[in-house]
Design a protein that fits this description.
single chain; 133 residues; mainly alpha; 0% strand
Amino acid sequence: MWSKIFALGLGGFLGSNLRYWISNWVMERLGPYFPYGTLAVNGIGCFILGFITVYGNETIEITPTFRVFIAPGMIGALTTFSTFSLESFNLIRESNYTSAVINIALNIIIGLFAVELGFLAAKAFAVTANEVA
């Protein structure tokens, strides 16, 4: 029990730090006029979760503690649905409807696409790992 609590906390710590630094890095490069940072971390988080889901189920045995570290811990803190929702709401509130729709659509489309990419990457990685072994 305590190992899962520690894993969850450590994953959350790492994920929230990753979210902060990745989001700021992206925003510094692309500008503050659109929530690119949130879009980036949501896509990255979806990819990692998709990859871990397939790789952990089909290739290697991932312990329950490591699953807690990755999924609700690190990825839960990395992805930012509440931030995405607030940013979308603020765009609507500012009558920036086009950006709001684009933001919502891109987060959903990129999220689904990133999960699929994670699945495909894990399957390709598993095949390569099996060929090497």
